[in-house]
User: Fold these one by one.
Assistant:
Number 1:
Amino acid sequence: MGSIADIRKDYKLKELQEADAHENAIVQFDRWWKEALNSEIDEVNAMTLATASADGVPAARIVLLKGFDARGFRFFSNYNSFKGMQLEENPRACLVLFWKVLERQVRITGLVEKLGEKESDEYFQSRPAGSRIGALASPQSEVIESSEWLIDRAAKLKEKYAHAEIPRPPYWGGYLVKPVSIEFWQGRPNRLHDRLLYTLGEDGKWGMERLAP
Ligand SMILES: Cc1cc2nc3c(=O)[nH]c(=O)nc-3n(C[C@H](O)[C@H](O)[C@H](O)COP(=O)(O)O)c2cc1C
């Protein structure tokens, strides 16, 4: 069996040149997003969400990107979860997407706010019933006594809402990551990768710089 240290891959599919990159980072993200969608990537919207407590202790986990536009990037979660508590005391986050077949990585840093109730309601009600019950049943990130406890709790809620609309719990909803910087990484041969970093200026315009790989 080979050593972990010997696992490596050379990237050669594509390149990212300033001349081809859009001056607006969101438009550039939209271009890469559409290419990712067309590449039949499994869980194409899965992204790492990094947060930190006020005293700088980091935590990261995967969440699903559920929308983006000029305002920012949206995901949904439990506001009382560990990430929710970190975002409460330190409303900044970093998102990382990795699209392996395209040899691409995108890193977004930004300021986080909760989405409005209407947007959270709309998304919650668009989810399958099982997912809505799950959100209602699960005290995300809390210690629970067993898996049976959770399954039983979900079963009771399913029965309770058998003939009624499952309400969005007040502790569940969306977050908006308002980007301050977005880095696009394209793998290149011999580790000479392309990295373009966009930073949002005070005038609301995006600046772009090349970073060494
Ligand atoms: C593919 C994948 C998608 C996930 N999507 C979400 C999501 O959209 N929202 C969410 O709250 N948790 C999602 N999770 C679970 C989180 O990774 C995490 O376990 C949970 O949110 C609790 O994190 P926390 O304790 O840091 O708050 C997902 C996990 C995986 C593997």
Number 2:
Amino acid sequence: MTAATTSAARAFRGAQTQGRSEDELKELVRHAGADLELAPAEVIIEWAVATFGERFCITSSMADAVLSHLASTVAPGIDVVFLDTGYHFAETVGTRDAVEATLPVNLISITPKQTVEEQDAEYGKDLFARDPDLCCALRKVAPLSDALQKYEAWATGLRRAETHNRVIAPVIGWDEKKRKVKVSPLARWSDAEVERYIAENGVLVNPLQYDGYPSIGCWPCTRRVAPGEDPRSGRWAGTGKTECGIHQ
Ligand code: SF4
């Protein structure tokens, strides 16, 4: 653990930051965004932890535990938010349970307002097949937005290498929809860097990644992809939809 990491961990445990105004948060983004654009992921997380204390969380889709591992090294006990849509593969739920059991994090599983059965009753069965945008809005976008209310900043595992839509993901940005600071410590990481970090640190990986699912979402909207195919092409295949709305 670096000296900066130690001080970030101390800040995380001790700081109870007062709520900042949106203008103050945007000012932070302006300054830190330029300063940290080329910084290592660990330093970016250290900055976020030292700046926001307990008003900072990370989110994980449980495709792997890279960001959870990194953040728990910087700030043991950090909040890791997982969006439990009710449609996850068993392997994804198992990865979440393994992360909770093996990493020093505070795992928070959040759920939509309605169960799948309640949603079926109101909107009809298999809404994902008829209106995936509405299904994602109900089961992903709204619950995450609610869960983030108590934070000033959130981190995602978004990487520019993943899809063309993510090329411009800033390391430190302003999320206009959620009105929060959005931190993407892994934005500049290549696939090879992710693989190296996993190998060197024995990081948990969702077993589906080794079974043809390089990008993992809800089971009704995720299919296997062939070697060489765009890793994201297995998500909402054939619908024209490419993102769930969380990052738009
Ligand atoms: S990914 Fe599919 S099942 Fe999951 S919330 Fe979106 S539309 Fe619904």
Number 3:
Amino acid sequence: MLTDYHLHLRPDEDDTPPSRYFTQANVERYREAASEHGIAELGVAEHVHRFTRALDVWQHPFWKRWAVDDLDEYVGFVREETDLKLGIEADYVPGREDRMANLLDDHEWDYVVGSVHFIRDDAIDMRGEWDIWRTSGDPEKVWATYFDALGEAARSGMYDVLAHPDLVKVWGERLPDGDLRRFYDRAMDGIAESDVAIEVSTAGLRKPVGELYPNRAFLEMCLEAGRPVALSSDAHLPEQVGYEYEHAVKWLTEIGVAELAVFERRERRLEAIG
Ligand SMILES: [Zn+2]
Ligand SMILES: [Zn+2]
């Protein structure tokens, strides 16, 4: 069994309306690409900030710019017109846990993917006016705050999967010196006390850092804490489905991971990789 659960049916760009991307023809393109990689288990996890309902949770200017689509229509499309698993990529916004939980409670997801994309108002993986590195971001501080938030996200209990867990390395520059486990440690209590699966994402291989998310030491710490693995590509285009999966599966095998998390209506089971 191979999974690709963290899929977006469209790029993070202007002029990507649901009418063009939330269609059976587009889903068919994703299915075909998945078949070529031997991936049977597929699900979508659109960004919460693309839906108007997100503004009940957080009013960040970036969200205000993007929150235009109808969440119920997305859910209806996936459930009624596709055989994809239904997920959503929901940010962890400290202090807004209740609001996000309310939004999530309105639908019956197969899984909820939790992401830390922002530290306060600053973006971890976005260049431009919100970029956390646009001023003199101190790597020690940014990394510490990032992993604190990641641990809190796990502990919140809102998420089935912790997405791209060490996203803070995305740009491959201004990395802290020395053994990075001092940062991973900050998230590990929250992760150990949670029931969350840890996403191994091949998206990092497409980014400047050129590595899988997460770092091997981070994953080993999560495995030690008893957490299972969820495998995804974070594709935003059909040709990114199953991206570099051969590499990821080999890497997981080396580390001793033999099973992947499979989700249905927020129940998780483990199936052998294959
Ligand atoms: Zn993300
Ligand atoms: Zn994503």
Number 4:
Amino acid sequence: MMQKTLCYFDNNATTRVAPEVVDALIPFLRDHWGNPSSAYSFGHEIAHQVEEARAKVAALINADPREIIFTSCGTESSNSAIHSALVVHPEKRHVLTTAVEHSANIKFGDFLKKQGYSVTLLPVEPDGSLDLHLLEKSIRPDTAIVSVMWANNETGVLFPIEEIAAICRSKGVVFHTDAVQVAGKLKIDVKEQGIDMLSLSAHKLHAPKGIGLLYVKRRTKYHPYIIGGGQERGRRGGTENVPYIVAFGRAAELALASVDHENTRVRALRDKLENGILATIEGASRNGAKEPRLPNTTNIAFEGVEAEGILLLLDQAGICVSSGSACTTGSLDPSHVLLAMGCSAARARGSIRFSLGIYNTDEEVDYVLKCLPGVISRLRANAPVEAG
Ligand SMILES: Cc1ncc(COP(=O)(O)O)c(C=O)c1O
């Protein structure tokens, strides 16, 4: 296969597996392939490595290792959190979440509604922020769980998780947050931030796809979503995905060490890209608040063009970006996040997300800034659409 230039600006979709993570993983495919539940030492050693990895991912969020449940992905983690709250409080049949969550919550909410549960999707302001008074008022006596994402995957807008956790605590409701986009980008301290449950996904922090975790604060009642063997202290059945758990542990270690880097160098690259685009391309404007926002994300609307066209032409130049979330790419539906922020369908359809990461360079940002104005003017000249 011919290797072409790859200028990867889609780190919120997934990230390159770090070479250090690959090195940690390979021996667990090749040599240490035993089952951690086995009664002999070949298995015990594997179990020990799983626990080492658990300690590393726990350290990333300042949790106790016993509070970590390994899952297959962020989606499973969030589904499990909501499912558990409904099962352990059968008299409570209401879930409070937001209109801008990942489909892991939105679609699970649709499913729950069909089962007779009540699900509230809190609206957001035009800048993507939440009205906390409305959130507080929307908690009902029958609310089983409040599940609010920490960072939006499309715009990078951050919700004030500590304040939301405090509101939930005062109301005696379990609080879950989807922190999938936060790990490695911002400091996570579940104790300080007062979080009851939190979802992470390893492939957003330079580990492979197919492994995630759910943090469940001690003494929070929990009912498993996947029922089977007694793995994960009886909280998730299924033989552990040892190579990926080890990889997740190594990635967590690296992420903990590079948070400051992401917050300074990656933020500076993102700002250079965003400022450059806004300054040089007429009719370009940011979606969502400038701050508080993830340091790596910018979402920009280009008046009078379709994002699909931008994606295609940038792809030809070896540049990877996305429109909306990766899960909706390929469909022509405008992003539910941008629509919830009050954007017109035309604006949402002309919006692109750039999400940077630790492997991006200054030269790559310069290259995008060089290519993009030509791409936009070519599209505007060829296929003008109604501005919105
Ligand atoms: C905010 C957010 N939540 C959840 C997920 C789902 O994670 P996973 O792909 O591990 O299921 C994603 C992935 O795009 C995400 O960005």
